[in-house]
Amino acid sequence: MSRQSVAKAHEKIQELAWEPLYHEPVSQYGTDYTFQKAKKRDPLKQVLRSYFPMEEEKDHRVYGAADGAIRGNMFRQVQERWLEWQKLFLSIIPLPEISAARAMPLLFRTVPNPELHNGQAIQMIDEVRHSTIQQNLKRLYMNNYIDPAGFNNSLRNFQNDYCGTIGRQFAEGFITGDAITAASVYLTVVAETAFTNVLFVAMPAEAAANGDYLLPTVFHSVQSDESRHISNGYATLLMALADEGNHQLLERDLRYAWWNNHRVVDAAIGTFIEYGTKDRRKDRESYAEMWRRWIYDDYYRSYLVPLEKYGLVIPHDLIEESWNQIWNKGYVHEVAQFFCTGWLANYWRMDPMTDKDFEWFEYKYPGWYDKYGAWWENYSRLSTPNGHHPIVFEDVQYQYPNRCWTCMVPCLVREDMVMAEVDGQTCTYCHEACRWTDVEAFRPTYQGRETPNMGQLIGKREWETLYHGWNWADVVSDMGYVRDDGKTLVAQPHLNLDPKKMWTLDHLRRCPPLQSPNVLLNEMSPDEQKAFHANYIRGGPAGRPAPADA
Amino acid sequence: MTAEEATGKDNDVQATDVAQPTDDAQAIEEKTHAAKPIEEQAETDPQERSVPKPAFTDAEAGAKVFPDSTARTHNYFTPKKRKASHYEDVTVEVQPDPRHYLSQGWLYGFADGRGGYPLEWTAMKAWGVDRPEPERFPGSGGKGYDWPAHGWHEFRDPNEEWELTIYRYNANVVRQINQNIETARQAKAFEQWNPNWVTFVERHVGAWMHVEHGLGLYLFANAQRRAPTNMHNNAISVNSMHKLRFAQDLALYNLTLSEEIEDFDGAAHVATWNEDSAWQGVRRVAEQLTGIDDWAEAIFAANVVFEPLVGELFRSNLVQQASPGNGDFVTPTVVGAGELDYATRDLRYTKAMFDLLINDKEFADHNKQIIDQWLSVWVPRCITAARELQPLWSQPDSKPPRFEDGLDRAKSRFSGLLSELDLQQPKELTQ
Ligand SMILES: [Fe+2]
Ligand SMILES: [Fe+2]
Ligand SMILES: [Zn+2]
Ligand SMILES: [Zn+2]
Fold first, then answer.
1. Is B421 within a domain?
2. Cβ B68–A15 below 8 Å, yes or no?
3. Binary contact (B52, A279; C-beta < 8 A)
4. Each residue of A457-491: pLDDT tens digit?
5. Which single residue of A291, A330, A359, B132 has CA 20 to 30 Å from B300?
6. How many other β-carbons are positioned within 10 Å of the β-carbon of residue A394?
7. pLDDT tens, B196-215?
8. Residue B400 is part of which domain span?
């Protein structure tokens, strides 16, 4: 092999870039940011001659581990509680990955520095790698894990499930709207730099603790590509900072991207790590502890804060507020409780918590039992069908929440719920920051400044709307979450695979119809809405209805 | 702060280790994040290691019988053959579609309110697309059209590219090229080259790297954001990497030559690309290609028109033919790798993609009409570019077959392609 120095090889490939003489490349994505065309260094110094063999070598390890897992009967010691939640996670994550690939060309024309485009193209194919390697892992689970239901229909399910829809923002936020907001600030500066550590490092550690050493192998291999992507984002961010006119937009986008990532990623990954594990060693880190280390210290203190001297306005208040949500307001616990309340609309099985779990939660989150203990006891009690309805219809002191129009996680920290009338309808938001995102940030003007390239929140954002007035058996059939006997549900609020203990469409048929909180809200008069809001914010924690007036 | 402060530090990346492409780049990459928790765990409890205890769970396939216990195939798409291929399993439906399962629709839109992957991003149509998008409203339910809802979802990449194949293939290619060049270097094979051939390689073979690089980035990488299915976009992104790799193969080969051959001018390819009049036709059409808005037109114009008429004309009918006579057995292996990418893989998926559209049960005529228009635009442009290359044929000492013969071969290759695709030869071909 020719021993050309890496530096020389890298220097040489810089000669590839050229400026058009006759026709400009097509310009298909807009941004309100402005960039000075300046000679840049490619931050990656990645040459394909070494890149391809390097990735191939990584693959050898991944596929070697996959073979080993099957030969070594890994699934005899995998915790079902854990793997069931992978039906949700692995149905969602290949889309954000592939969306990151699709996002790269949004930067070609908007950031006019060809030196950066090489790195973006490599990120593109990295992300194709990630998407398909994760699909492959899911396929392996489908083939080798005891219960394939939920893996076998995962890519249909994540398109219509309410949890899948929450996760989908993490993908769609990369590929639409203002090109820099999407492909640079939301994707690389926040999602990749801050949150891939909990996604691809903290979560795999938990997988290993639950007997699955294959997921860590795959995700560490994925994460090893991320440092390059983070460099892409950093280079673009510094270029954006060089123009004073961008500072206001950067401030807006960091606020949006930070808060949305917190809402979406902490909801999902927090639930997997805290409620999807059987590992209750007291010295294993809680999600809050991991968050403090990976996100607060490593990202916020070490990465973001030093950028302040370049004029970056950092959303200190929102970062502290996210911590407040996780530590004081039980954000992750509220989400897990809601996911389990709504188990019947999902496609995986959700294991009840036991005394051992309670003890761990109380140790890690003092005061947990008083808030959530009784509800989880009810969840266990109601988990196998025995003449009662699923927990959502039973009186367990839980008020079904309204959904946040922005992040699409319900408004679970009840006191934070805000309402606004937008485009002719009344919407609920889980927090002021989510109201701001919809009402102020995603608009064609921002603080009096024209932002014609900013994206929009679109779609039927409340899941329940489409099924308003439907019988639950029809809802679940319509979504396709039924097993091959034509009646047993894919989802179950327990892990028992004895068909006699499993819920079926017949059980759902007897339940009250589904009611969309948002449709009901919009049927109210303005005064009724006000009263509804006043009552709502007196509810909680743990979904408790507001105390009756004395 | 000043702009210089911010931009001057742009390679001082904080909070991350930038992987260097050394031999142990991979080790560095894998260490970046993954090693961290393990190290810190070891620090906090050095004495008694707290490790999770494995438990026997018997969560293995087949351990119990219950509804779905044997349902181990994806049930949301119809495989092309009787059984889903590995490729289909890891590719189909990753990119959702509001016309079948995506019941709540796209969640984020551009400023004009369009989200996801608008079908109007190409003038091509696949059966079913004229049906209105299913309307969803309070109480509508989520049901869309039955899968696949429209013909775009029927495309499968015949190369079945996914992560394993991408890296295996390209790693093999770069290894092979490196080996060939190294063998030639040790055998002092470059000393056989006559001065005119050295000039030819430094300038003209060198100039070609710019075509590959420009199209790889601004046509192919750009287009993989825009097609309606994951199968299309993945195939296009793989095509993009072939081109970018080939561009770098040529650049690094050029670097080796400037180290090995005393009078080899490693910068001449840039001047040739910028100034040599023989190349300006190719450059013009390459730039025009990157200016195409319609993603399918871009793929078609590049892979069905430009590659056979210009790319293969230059690579196969000039470089590959002229090299041996001029004592060069190395350049054909480098150029041949790129030629093979195109002729065996990139063209193959392109044909499969357009074959479906040209034979679409609803829009065959519509599509053929549009493609005819594309042909009438791109054929003359490519022929003009090809003709402007003619002076290159007289430069080597040992002459390749005549330009006109080469062009005829390229044209007949092209018209063969058209008839395989059941398309009419445009009159412009006879120019
Ligand atoms: Fe990724
Ligand atoms: Fe990434
Ligand atoms: Zn990344
Ligand atoms: Zn929200």
1. yes
2. no
3. yes
4. 999 999 999 999 999 999 999 999 999 999 999 99
5. B132
6. 13
7. 999 999 999 999 999 999 99
8. 163-430
